[in-house]
Amino acid sequence: MTSAYLYLNAAIYLLLAVWCTLAPARTAAAVGYASLTRSGQTEYLTIYGGLQLGLAFLFAWFAWTQQMRTGLVLAMALYLPIVLFRSVALLRWWPVETATLVLAVTEWLMLAAAFGLWWQGRSA
C-alpha cells in the first residue's frame, strides 16, 4: 500500500512538472497568477517544473528501492507545512480559483494518507 502511495505521489508530481513546464502561462493563470515577468517566468519554471520533477524522482526512488518509511517522512515533511500554509491562505483570501481548491484537497488527502500509512506501519 505504501509503495502505491509513493508511486502515486511520483506520478502526480511528474504530471504537474510536465504541465507547468509545457504550459506555464496557462497553469499560472489557473492558480491565480495574472501575469509573470521574465524573472517570474524563470522562477515559475524552476519551482513548478524543476522542483516538482525532483519530488517525482524522490517519491519514485523511495518506492522503487523499498525505502517506505523514508518516503513517508518525505511526504509528511512536504505536505504538513503546505497544508498549514494553504489552509491559512484559504481562510485569509477566500474565495479562490477552482484549481487552487483542487490542489488543496489533493494535498490534504495526501497528508492524511501519509499519516495513516505511517501509523499503520507503526502498529505492524
Automatic annotation (TrEMBL):
The keyword Membrane applies. It comes from the Bacteria. Keywords: Membrane, Transmembrane, Transmembrane helix. The chain crosses the membrane at residues 45-64, 71-94, 100-119. This is DUF4345 domain-containing protein.
